[in-house]
């Protein structure tokens, strides 16, 4: 199991469109992946789960992966969040 903490850079946070980009990226990996905000953890491949966290810009989240490609998964998702969901990051 591998995890990393990241601050959401874009102003709107992980809502609708950015959450969709995040899920698409998460689904590229075989590992189980979760997002944790404060004391809540949700499946990073679930739109409803991510939206239920109410993640806004400036929020610190933890990305956790467990599986064969966990290192690549965490790095790829942290890079995506760090980019502010820029077009070239996908």
From TrEMBL:
Cellular component, GO annotation: cytoplasm
Entry keyword set: Cytoplasm, Phosphotransferase system
Coiled-coil ranges per UniProt: none
GO biological process: phosphoenolpyruvate-dependent sugar phosphotransferase system
Location of the protein in the cell: Cytoplasm
Source organism, top-level taxon: Bacteria
CDD domains xrefs: PTS-HPr_like
Claim: Cytoplasm is one of the keywords in the record: yes
Pfam families for this protein: PTS-HPr
Sequence ranges assigned to domain HPr in this UniProt record: 1-88
Main location per the UniProt record: cytoplasm
InterPro entries reported for this sequence: HPr, HPr-like, HPr-like_sf, PTS_HPr_His_P_site, PTS_HPr_Ser_P_site
Cytoplasm is among the record's keywords: yes
Function: General (non sugar-specific) component of the phosphoenolpyruvate-dependent sugar phosphotransferase system (sugar PTS). This major carbohydrate active-transport system catalyzes the phosphorylation of incoming sugar substrates concomitantly with their translocation across the cell membrane. The phosphoryl group from phosphoenolpyruvate (PEP) is transferred to the phosphoryl carrier protein HPr by enzyme I. Phospho-HPr then transfers it to the PTS EIIA domain.
PANTHER family in UniProt: PHOSPHOCARRIER PROTEIN HPR, PHOSPHOCARRIER PROTEIN NPR
Name of the protein described by the UniProt record: Phosphocarrier protein HPr
